[in-house]
Amino acid sequence: MKKRLRKKLRLREFQEVGFSVKFDLKLPDSKAEDDFGDRLINAIESNHLLLGGGLNDFFVQSDSSRKTSETDRQAVEAWLQQQPEVAAITIGPLVDAWYGFFN
Questions:
Q1: Once rounded to an integer, what is the mean pLDDT over residues 31-42?
Q2: 91 lies in which domain range?
Q3: Does any domain span residue 40?
Q4: pLDDT value of residue 103
Q5: 12 located within any domain
Q6: What predicted TM-score, i.e. pTM, was given to this entire model?
Q7: How far, in Å, CA of 16 to CA of 49, rounded?
Q8: 3-class SS at 52?
């Protein structure tokens, strides 16, 4: 397969990976949800990652500057474990962000 096609299809050296995150959230009201959401987005973006999905069930992958790594998974998990309002955290394995997430 030619390099141009591999890039277009995001295969081999152009593969993008990410991981799913799911957890239970115990918040008293919508103001607390907004505050938690802001903190979560700041934590994700400060690690040069992107988040897509809902407040407590989403997919994370790196921005275009680098590939997502196991270190990124561990950083997100560590941040979530430090939050008192978060429980039952499930972090999925690194999967292909284009072809492997929904399998």
A1: 96
A2: 17-96
A3: yes
A4: 47
A5: no
A6: 0.88
A7: 12
A8: strand
